[in-house]
Amino acid sequence: MSVVKINAITVPPERMGEFAERFANRAGRVEQAEGFESFELLRPNDGRGVCLVLTRWRSEADFQAWMASADFGAGHAQHRSGGPVGTASEVWSFDVLERI
Q: How high is the pLDDT of residue 40?
């Protein structure tokens, strides 16, 4: 079954708009990656300062191949050229046990 990767990114409140804009303008190459299943960008609505980037993959191997790809590097070019919006980031990994 699928694996889910969650990038939990701490974003200062005053930069939430910029964070969302960067994702809206992203290269969008992940959608073409082998084994990619879905993408979601979640912004907190309860006062938390952590945004979540959820991706679902067919397998861990597919995710690792995406991370090692040139498209991954190109997709994160904004981060390199404009500096990070977030102040911290942590990647969580889950196996999907049940899906309805």
A: 95
pLDDT at 77: 65
Domain layout of the chain by residue ranges:
3-93
Output the 3-class SS for the chain: CCEEEEEEEECCHHHHHHHHHHHHCCCCHHHHCCCEEEEEEECCCCCCCEEEEEEEECCHHHHHHHHCCHHHHHHCHHHHHHCCCCCEEEEEEEECCCCC
Fold of 3-93: Alpha-Beta Plaits (3.30.70)
Residue 1 has what pLDDT? 84
Does the structure show a pLDDT above 80 at 74?
no
